[in-house]
Structures are given as structure tokens and as C-alpha cells.
């Protein structure tokens, strides 16, 4: 029934109550705007996950298979030099980073879908600067990736991977996951702003995720790669994310300062790139 | 100002005469476009648009599909740049001071744009948050917006389960939650069945009467404009071809026809006749959709 009677606004019944729809809210300004928008976008992400958990479950399957089949098998073969730790342990941080990246890469497709559905259009007419909108989406991707990371960590723990439970280090893990997701979601939104259609982006998304994954140290150390792949791995933010995760979760030697520095710069650059191209999606 | 529903005539006098409306002289003009041109490639979608919407009125921008209504609206809402001409919203430059303009706007785009993965309430909460409604009054304000469009009972259902008319009313609630001074609705009733169309218009009307906000609405349904708009502009090929109250426009055509020797017993012209008179033969070449629109409308009025 779409024809509900046009009721007068609620406040008209009781003159004492304020009709808030007559009072514009006081604008937030300056630095307080960005965290407020980021919070709003993250809240939406969590609400959606609460209404529909299927994605959470289906997205757990792939990392579970990687750990269970690939991890267990290669632990037995001992073909990959891991510096003395079981291969399954070595693999787990790589799979956390990989599954977070797969989630984040999907955000470009989502923003095109939101454009086609008119949702983005409407958000662009709110007092939300484009950079704040993109940052909000980037952190929303981070929130989703964090939940995914928890799932992978639980699976890995069940398979007997010995990881740290030091809360400070876990906080570092969360930061690495969020920063990596911010970068990959903005990379994907940047490409969305260039190609503009979902079909083209789907193709490109598929074409870049696998090279990013295999061209990183997620599955094997950089030292066993051929020279050209080492170069790719060195400019691939995923490698730095995996390095940080390994260092924090397993205590393997890593340079956290460099890792986090690269992740921060990559995330910042990709936010700038995605926000400057976002307007193209609105035309 | 009362919260009771006012008649169209009451509103006109109020908008014109009340000292409460508008604080500075400049703000009496809610929207002003001068010489606005916007081109997609070689075609000028908007081709020298001059438009002035007064504070407090319901202004209808009418025209067939392809007339350039949506493009003009997107320039006013800061979605598109203003390459040629000037667009002001309550005195703020839509190309320069975009954030100031956006804070004054509630916008319902042509597509049904609620997020189907969220409940009705969550859809409205999002807009309360991005318009900086403080946490302590968020729930109450969102509740009032939902009540104003008659969606209180359905508020906690996913928007994906709503009918077209309900989605439109939800979008109206999203736009209202920030107490905008200017409500912009792009084809609010397109694709809806006649009952839902009436429902949407009645809510627009009630909200407008209760808040006194300015409404800029586009439509290609001439009968709706006739019934609900204070003033209308007929747009064709990117330009305004006629402007006035629906009565003025119809009376004007009636007079012209009588001067040309039409019989006194001829039926009084409708707004659509006025439009055909203005657009002339040009209507049929570039705007073929208009005929389809007419035939759907006939079907619609049979059903309703
Ligand atoms: N994104 C776009 N790219 C190219 N042409 C467009 C685009 N949007 C609109 N147009 C063209 O601009 C003209 C006006 O369109 P529009 O403003 O949507 O009209 P209306 O809203 O009155 O139906 C049409 O000829 C349409 O084909
Ligand atoms: Mg349109």
C-alpha cells in the first residue's frame, strides 16, 4: 500500500515538541568533518553486514581452502624456504592480506553500482567533500577486511598456526589490514573513475588481482623469485603489508617502519587519486 | 506560520507577504540561473537557461524527455560544473561555494536511489549523519522525517522490500532530515502507478505546507504540475519557452485562440495544449518520447 494518508508533521500535534525538520543542523567544520563522514560510511558497512551475512561466509571459503590445501601440502613438501617456520604459519599472514585485498578490490565495482543506482549521486550532493567520501569508503573496506582477517586468524589458529596474542601487536595487525584495504579499495575506485563502466572494471579487477597476489611475498619469499618478479614485488604494497603482518603475528624479521611508511604513503596517494577522479562518475 | 495545510493561493500570498520568510533581500530568490549552457559533446542539453525560483514557492520545471531538465537540475545541485552562465542558490554560487549550496539542498534524483541493503530508518540515519545532525537528536529527527512521509511502520524493513511509491517517500524523508531550505525533486513520480503518484504529491504538499521550504520539481506530467505547482516553466530544447502560474498560461492560450477566431464553446486549453502551442512542430522531431508519455498517461488515468 503506497498511498498512506499525508499526515501533518508530527510536531503540529503537540506545540511543545520541537519540529526538528524546521531546524537545520549546525555544520561541522574543519578537522571534525572527516572522522564524522568516515564514521557514517563505516556504520553503513556494518549495518549491511548485519542484514546479510552470506558474504561473510562465502568469503571465508577461499582463504580456508588456501590454508587447508595449499598450506598443508606445502608444509609437507618443504619446498619453500621460510626461514625455519612451518609453511602453514608462513602462509597465514599472506592469506590474511590476500583476502583483505580481494574485498577491497570489489569497492570500485561497488562505487559504479552505487553510481548507477543513484546512491553516489545523492551522497555527492551532501556536504561531504569528495576526499572525505573516498576516505570513508576506504575505511569501510578496512572494516570489512578486518572482520575477514579475524575469520582467517581463527581458521589458522584452528589449524595450529602459532600466532601472537599480544594486544599491541594485534592492534598493529589491524592497522596494517586497514591501510592495505584503504590502498586497494582506492586503487579500484581510481580505475572505476577511469573506465566508468562495471563490465570494464570487472575485467581489469580480475586482471590485476592475481598478478598483485603472485607478484608479492604472500606465498613465497622474495629471495626465490626471478629478478623481474623481485622488482614487481618491491613496488607492490601487498608485499609490505604481508611483511608487516608476518613480523607482527609470527615475529619474523621485518622492518615495520618501512612497511607502515609504504602502506601509509600508498593509501594517501590512492585516496588523492580516487577523489580527483570521483567527479567523473557523477557526470 | 501555521502547520496546517494551506491552499495554493494562501501559500502564494504567504511567500510574497510574510516577513518571516527570508532574512535578507537577496535570499528571496531561492534559485537563479542566468545564461546557463551545458553541453554533452556537440549537443547543448541546456542552452541558455534563465530561471528564477522565488523563496517559498513550488516551482515546476516542465518539459518532455530530453528537454534538459535533469541536466539543469544537476548544475544547480553542484553535480555538474557550470561551464557557461551563473547559477546561484540563495545567493551562493553553485560553481564556487559548493559546500554552502549543498547544505541548503535536499535532493531526490530521477532514479529510485534508496540503498536496498539498508532499512528505511538506516537510509535516513545516513543522511542525518552526513548533514551533521548531532547524535543526541538523531533518532528523534529521523523519526520525524519518517513520520512526515508516512513510513513509521515500515521504517525497520529493508528498503529492498519497498514499493516504488514507498522508496520515493523514503527518499523524501532522506532529503527532509537535514531541514533543507530548498527541496529539489527530479521527476518524483516517474514510473509510479497513479495512486502512488498521488501519495507522493500529497506528502510533498504537506511537507511544503508545514515547513515553508522552497520546492523545485521537474516533471513531464503536465496534469501534476497544473495541480500542485504555484508557478511553472515550460522547457524545450534546453530553454524556457513559457513561464507563469498554470492559470495564467492556460488563460493566455485561451485568449490567443479566441483572438484567432476559435469558438467560445471550445474546451478550455490544458497545460499540455499550452506546451504543444509553444513547442510547435519541434516537439515531434527531437522528443518522440512525449507521445509515449501521453499514451502511458492515458492508460494511467483509465486505471486510476
Ligand atoms: N550523461 C550524458 N551524456 C550524454 N548526453 C546526455 C547525458 N545526459 C543527458 N544527455 C542528453 O542531454 C539532453 C537532455 O537530457 P536530460 O537533461 O536528461 O533531459 P530531461 O531530464 O529533460 O529528460 C538529452 O538529449 C540527453 O540525451
Ligand atoms: Mg530527466
> CATH architecture of chain B, please?
3-Layer(aba) Sandwich
Largest beta-sheet characterization of chain B: 6 strands, mixed
**Oligomerization:** heterodimer
- The stretches of 5 or more residues of chain A where confidence is low (pLDDT under 50) are 10-16
CATH first level of chain B = Alpha Beta
Fill in the CATH topology of chain B: Rossmann fold
The CATH superfamily of chain B is known as P-loop containing nucleotide triphosphate hydrolases
What fraction of the residues of chain B are assigned to beta strands by DSSP? 15-25%
Task: Explain what the structure shows.
The complex is a heterodimer of chains A (283) and B (304). Chain A is mainly α and 283 residues long. Chain A has one domain. Chain A is 72% helix and 0% strand. Chain A is globular, with a radius of gyration of 22 Å. Chain B is of the alpha/beta class and 304 residues long. Chain B has a single domain, classed as P-loop containing nucleotide triphosphate hydrolases (Rossmann fold), CATH 3.40.50.300. Helices cover 43% and strands 21% of the residues of chain B. Chain B has twelve helices and ten strands. In chain B, helix 7 (194-211) links the parallel strand 7 (182-186) and strand 8 (214-219). At the A-B interface, helix 1 and helix 4 of A face helix 3, strand 6, helix 4, helix 5 and helix 6 of B. The structure holds adenosine-5'-diphosphate and magnesium ion. The site of adenosine-5'-diphosphate has 11 residues of chain B, from strand 2 and helix 2.
Annotate the secondary structure layout.
The complex is a heterodimer of chains A (283) and B (304).
Chain A: H1 33-51, H2 54-77, H3 87-116, H4 119-124, H5 130-158, H6 167-195, H7 198-214, H8 227-235, H9 237-250, H10 256-282
Helix pairs in contact in A: 1-5, 2-3, 2-5, 3-5, 3-6, 3-7, 3-9, 5-6, 5-10, 6-7, 6-9, 6-10, 9-10
Chain B: H1 8-17, E1 29-40, E2 43-54, E3 58-62, H2 69-76, E4 84-89, E5 92-93, H3 98-104, E6 105-108, H4 120-130, H5 135-148, H6 164-176, E7 182-186, H7 194-211, E8 214-219, H8 222-228, E9 231-236, E10 239-244, H9 246-259, H10 271-279, H11 282-286, H12 289-303
Helix pairs in contact in B: 4-5, 4-6, 5-6, 6-7, 9-10
The site of magnesium ion has 5 residues of chain B, from helix 2.
Amino acid at each position: 500500500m503506497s498511498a498512506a494518508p499525508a499526515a501533518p508533521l508530527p510536531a503540529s500535534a503537540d506545540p511543545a515538541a520541537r519540529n526538528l525538520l524546521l531546524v537545520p543542523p549546525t555544520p561541522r567544520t574543519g578537522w571534525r568533518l572527516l572522522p564524522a563522514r568516515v564514521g557514517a560510511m563505516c556504520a553503513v558497512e556494518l549495518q549491511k553486514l548485519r542484514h546479510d551475512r552470506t558474504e561473510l561466509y562465502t568469503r571465508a571459503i577461499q582463504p580456508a581452502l588456501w590454508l587447508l590445501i595449499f598450506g598443508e601440502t606445502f608444509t609437507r613438501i618443504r619446498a619453500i624456504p621460510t626461514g625455519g617456520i612451518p609453511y602453514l604459519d608462513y602462509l597465514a599472514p599472506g592469506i590474511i592480506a590476500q583476502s583483505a585485498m580481494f574485498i577491497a578490490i570489489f569497492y570500485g565495482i561497488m562505487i559504479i553500482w552505487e553510481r548507477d543506482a543513484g546512491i553516489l549521486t545523492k551522497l555527492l550532493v551532501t556536504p561531504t567533500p569528495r576526499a572525505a567520501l573516498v576516505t570513508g569508503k576506504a575505511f569501510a573496506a578496512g572494516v570489512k577486511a578486518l572482520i575477514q582477517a579475524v575469520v582467517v586468524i581463527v581458521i589458522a589458529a584452528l589449524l595450529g598456526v602459532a600466532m601472537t596474542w599480544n594486544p599491541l601487536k594485534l592492534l598493529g595487525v589491524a592497522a596494517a589490514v586497514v591501510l592495505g584495504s584503504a590502498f586497494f579499495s582506492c586503487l579500484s575506485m581510481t580505475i572505476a573513475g577511469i573506465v566508468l563502466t562495471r563490465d570494464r572494471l570487472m575485467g581489469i579487477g580480475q586482471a590485476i588481482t592475481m598478478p598483485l597476489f603472485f607478484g608479492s611475498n604472500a606465498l613465497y619469499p622474495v629471495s626465490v623469485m626471478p629478478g623481474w618478479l623481485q622488482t614487481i614485488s618491491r613496488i607492490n604494497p601487498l608485499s609490505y603489508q604481508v611483511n608487516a603482518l608476518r613480523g607482527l603475528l609470527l615475529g619474523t624479521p621485518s622492518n615495520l617502519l618501512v612497511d607502515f611508511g609504504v602502506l601509509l604513503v600508498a593509501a594517501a596517494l590512492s585516496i588523492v587519486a580516487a577523489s580527483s577522479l570521483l567527479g567523473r562518475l557523477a557526470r | 506560520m501555521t502547520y496546517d495545510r494551506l491552499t495554493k493561493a494562501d501559500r502564494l500570498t504567504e511567500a510574497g507577504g510574510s516577513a518571516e520568510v527570508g532574512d535578507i533581500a537577496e535570499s528571496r530568490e531561492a534559485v537563479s540561473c542566468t545564461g546557463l549552457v551545458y553541453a554533452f559533446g556537440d549537443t547543448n542539453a541546456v542552452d541558455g537557461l534563465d530561471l528564477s525560483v522565488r523563496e517559498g514557492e513550488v516551482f515546476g520545471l516542465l518539459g518532455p524527455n530530453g528537454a534538459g531538465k535533469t541536466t539543469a537540475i544537476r548544475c544547480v545541485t553542484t553535480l555538474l560544473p557550470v561551464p557557461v552562465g551563473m547559477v546561484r542558490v540563495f545567493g551562493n554560487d553553485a560553481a564556487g561555494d559548493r559546500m554552502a549550496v549543498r547544505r541548503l539542498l535536499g535532493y531526490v534524483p530521477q532514479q529510485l536511489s534508496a540503498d536496498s541493503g539498508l532499512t528505511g530508518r538506516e537510509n535516513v540515519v545516513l543522511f542525518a549523519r552526513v548533514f551533521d545532525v548531532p547524535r543526541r537528536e538523531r533518532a528523534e529527527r529521523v523519526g520525524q522525517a519518517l513520520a512526515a512521509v508516512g513510513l513509521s511502520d515500515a521504517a525497520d524493513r529493508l528498503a529492498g522490500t519497498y514499493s516504488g511509491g514507498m522508496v520515493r517517500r523514503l527518499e523524501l524523508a532522506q532529503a527532509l532530515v537535514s531541514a533543507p531550505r530548498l527541496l529539489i525533486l527530479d521527476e518524483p513520480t516517474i514510473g509510479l502507478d497513479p495512486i502512488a503518484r498521488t501519495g507522493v504529491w500529497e506528502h510533498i504538499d504537506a511537507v511544503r505546507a508545514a515547513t515553508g521550504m522552497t520546492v523545485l520539481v521537474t516533471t513531464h506530467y503536465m496534469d501534476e504540475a497544473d495541480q500542485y505547482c504555484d508557478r511553472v516553466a515550460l522547457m524545450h530544447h534546453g530553454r524556457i519557452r513559457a513561464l507563469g502560474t498554470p492559470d495564467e498560461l492556460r488563460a493566455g492560450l485561451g485568449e490567443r485562440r479566441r483572438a484567432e477566431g476559435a469558438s467560445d464553446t471550445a474546451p478550455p486549453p490544458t497545460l499540455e495544449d499550452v506546451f504543444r502551442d509553444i513547442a510547435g512542430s519541434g516537439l515531434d522531431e527531437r522528443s518522440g518520447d512525449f507521445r509515449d508519455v501521453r499514451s502511458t498517461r492515458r492508460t494511467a488515468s483509465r486505471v486510476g
